[in-house]
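agent> Task received from the user: take the single chain below, predict its 3D structure, and emit structure tokens. No templates, no multimer pairing.
agent> Plan: (1) validate residues, (2) run structure prediction, (3) serialize to tokens, (4) report one or two observations.
agent> Step 1 OK, no nonstandard residues flagged.
tool_call: predict_structure(input=
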Amino acid sequence: MEDAIRGTAEGRAPVPLSVLDLVTVGAGSTAAASLRTSVEISRLAERRGYHRHWVAEHHSMPGVASSAPAVILAHLAAHTSRIRLGSGGVMLPNHAPLVVAEQFGTLEALAPGRIDLGLGRAPGADGQTARALRGPGRLDEAAEEFPRALAELTRFLDDDFPDGHPYARVHAVPGPVQGPAGRPPLWLLGSSGFSARLAAELGLPFAFAHHFSAANTLPALDLYRDTFRPSAVLDKPYALIGVSALAADDPAEARRQARAAALSMLRLRSGRPGLVPTPEEAESYPYTEMEREFLGDWLRNVIHGGAEEVRAGLDALVARTGADELMLTANAHAGEARRRSYELIADAYGMPGGAS
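)
tool_result: status=success, residues=356
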């Protein structure tokens, strides 16, 4: 399974590069158009040598159309043939472990050897939405139950509950009960030390959300590496980090698109989620002093500009963190800006499949 986890750097990239997709929806566009863009990005990523394409799980956010990762991944699988596809991630407390095992067993049957199952313990939503997802009385207990739910999910994927267990005769289908079958490697996702420590204890690969928790990146990676225990999955740590990166032909346009995405995040954090605003709206928005400070802090963690400027920023980030893989998320108002960013970054690193 280790071969399914570790990627290969292409071109002059210092580490494997991958895609994190939130299926962002800009003002004046639609979820249907954003999903078409995601298909275009997945096919481009496959052609250009990106290692994997993951889809995040978020709920009740008008500017994000990735509430059902397994459904989107099935669609992407039908339009690609080689690139790894996965969840970045499934928020496990929102789901029964058996349901997740069945969904990803189905994906594995549709795209054998290409599926990753990344898991998080946050709701991917605000508190009221989490209550609607999980049902009464489960909001507080869900995150604390994560290790138990993870163990249960693993048992369902491997079909190896011991005799006498209440679920010993319950099988996730598609799955091993039907005969020899592969299964997706598990990843733990996190933005703090909890999942870093748990991934290390279990010998699993770890994905850290640097794109919205940059202050915790180095402590979490150090914790993961220092406490890692070799397992049947990995003999040494493997950590990727999610990175906000947006390249454009015109560096000024990259800044405009990044600022629009930052305003979208500002509105989300202040309880006013909506579609990703246009760059023009972001430029004319009447920011308060506190909002300007938030915007500046947010944009400092977005690597944006021309392709060479973005490449230099990514190289510096790898040098600073020692990340084994970078997973790039291109958040912008325009779908074409998202797609073009991945193309330009691949060009900057001399990755395969570009124009001769």
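agent> Step 4: summary for the user.
The first strand starts at residue 17 and ends at 21.
agent> Done.
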